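[job 0412] stage=complex_fold ligand=guanosine-5'-diphosphate status=START
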Amino acid sequence: MSSCAIVGINWGDEGKGRMVDLLTEDYDVVVRYQGGGNAGHTVVNDKGKFALHLLPSGIFRQGVVNVLGNGVALDPENLWTEMEDVRSKGVDITPDSLKISDRASLLLPWHRELDGLEEARLADRQYGSTKQGIAPFYSDKYQKKTVLAGELFYPDELRRHLRDILEWKNLTLTGVYGAQPCAWEDVEKWLDDYCEKIKPFVCDTGAFLRKARDSGKNILFEAQLGALRDLDFGICPYTTSSNTLASYAPIGSGLPSMKIDRVMGVVKAYSTCVGEGPFVGEMTGEEADRLREAGAEYGAKTGRPRRVAPVDLVATRYGVQVQGATSIALTKLDVLSYMDEIPLCVRYEVNGRQTDEFPFPTELYGAKAVIEYMPGWKCDISGVRQWEDLPPAARDYVTRIEKAAGCPVTHVSVGPERDSIIIRNVK
Ligand code: GDP
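[job 0412] stage=complex_fold status=DONE, emitting structure tokens
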């Protein structure tokens, strides 16, 4: 039995889905352990191009069991819509290939609306939410004001529970935000339209995972977003509302006592960030437009243009440390091929002092990037499959990142397709 977590080292959108899709070949089970439908993994494989939001990226491999663990924000509406979409493109999804934890809490019909109402109240101080209801969902989960997927098997108790929560939630909707209350009929419709559809997939995934582990199956944990969006260790308050770190994977999956063998940290060859908040080294103007176009940096969920910056060695080293990464997959190296020289953010200047340490979030507002340049390689590398065949300037760039991060780069991705990958033997 071996286990591996694939996690983001930076702000998310590093290409984790692409790496999970590649590595599932060696794994029997793929588990999503946190987050919800608020971000997107783009996966390109022999079945087509898919934007996944909640489904684990192992869904395309025959024989792989995909699990949505207890730590996810289980949105029945979004999940069902996504399942229908993926199935319409010829991918089979059955209760054998997808299992939903009976201990996953449900994102309720009012969570999305509450997200929008709070962002509207914040006006120009918005957090940049994707308005998928994730923050209201997780706060309600910790207040014990939502229901577990397993409660779908107890319809009378479920309805009593939901009526109680609805009564409480309508106090917030009407009293705090002056919005319309949510009607019970809408809850019944939601139960019929979506919850009943996903019910056949709900089971005791903790028991399933324990059995899988004990019988020697290989388990892959798939994270959403990146280290800098972690609720506790990220750039508060511009984080997500769950824990994106590998150490949370066993808990959010349903195997709380497990030790993970390998943590693959995914790093993009330059930086991107969606939404608000400090982003040290952010590029602007033509330079930014060119990189955004070259990397097709538009959100998979929202279509929003992503903010772009040079690779950030300070944030990357911090991300590697908090993730406990044992290897790095560096993605999108091909995107930088047009550059004459490649900028890198090598240190931060905070309060007039240069530092290698990632600062406390409040200090990020005044932090400046110290930029150095490395020569570009100026040729198409998307067809390269061997480390030795990369131009020396590209290899130097990769090893510079590796050295700064203190972690070996074992995979270099040079295109979105499954086989556009260089696997490197690093001692
Ligand atoms: P994730 O959420 O971390 O899985 O990342 P996203 O899917 O949001 O963003 C990664 C995007 O980059 C997707 O559109 C991928 O198809 C694409 N991609 C991944 N790796 C590479 C690569 O090496 N080169 C290029 N050009 N595109 C890549």
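The CA atoms of residues 203 and 364 lie 43 Å apart.
[job 0412] exit 0
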